[in-house]
Amino acid sequence: MATGNITTISVFGSNDPAAGSEAYAIARAAGRTLAELGYTVANGGYGGTMEASAHGAKEAGGDTVGVTCEIWKTAANRYIDRTIQTASHHERLETLVELGGGGYVVLPGATGTLLELATVWELACKKLARPRPIVCVGEFWQPLVKMMS
After folding, report:
1. DSSP output for 62-117
2. Distance between CA atoms of 145 and 10, rounded to whole angstroms?
3. Which candidate among 82, 98, 115, 149 keeps its CA 20 to 30 Å from the CA of 123?
C-alpha cells in the first residue's frame, strides 16, 4: 500500500448532515483546523460532512481533494479543488486510505464511515501500513472502540 502524502489527512463521515446542523458545524470546524495546521483535506467529495470539512478547509485557505465514484453520477461539491474519480466503491476507499498519509479523522456516520474506519484500523493493527493517527471525533464511535479494544 502506498504511504500517501504526510501533509494530507483523509476525513471520513456521513453524506447526510445539512448545512446548519451540529454535525455539519463539527465537520466544518475539523476541516478548518486541519487546514490551519497546514494539511490538505481529502474526503469523499460529496455532501454532508464531506462538503462541510472541505468548506472549513477552504475558509482557512487550505487545499481539498474529493474522491468520487463514477457509479454515483454526482459531481463533487463546490469546495473541492481537485477531484479524483474512481471506477468503483472499493477503488474510492482504497484511494482515500492511500491519500491519508498524515492520518485520518473519522466523524460520525453510517455503514460507509464504519467501513472506512474498519479499513484504516485493520491496516494499523496488522501493520500493513506505516503508523498514522486515527482520530474518532466525539463520542459516537466510543462504544465500538471500547468493544474492539
Report:
1. --EEEEEEGGG--PPPTT-SEEEEESSHHHHHHHHHHHBTTEEEE-S-SHHHHHHH
2. 19
3. 82
Mapping DSSP to helix (H, G, I), strand (E, B) and coil, where does residue 131 land?
coil
Beta-bridge mates of residue 42: 10, 65
**Would you say the pTM of this structure is higher than 0.90?**
yes
Cα–Cα distance for residue pair 51/56, rounded to 1 Å: 9
Cell 474498519, residue?
Answer: 118
Residue 148, helix vs strand vs coil = helix
Q: Treating both helix axes as pointing N-terminal to C-terminal, what angle do 111-125 and 89-99 enclose, rounded to 10 degrees?
A: 50
SS3 (DSSP) at 41? strand
What gap in Å lies between CA 79 and CA 122, rounded to an integer? 30
The model's pLDDT over 46-61, given as tens digits with 9 standing for 90+, comes to: 999 999 999 999 999 9
Give dist(CA 130, CA 2) in Å, integer: 9
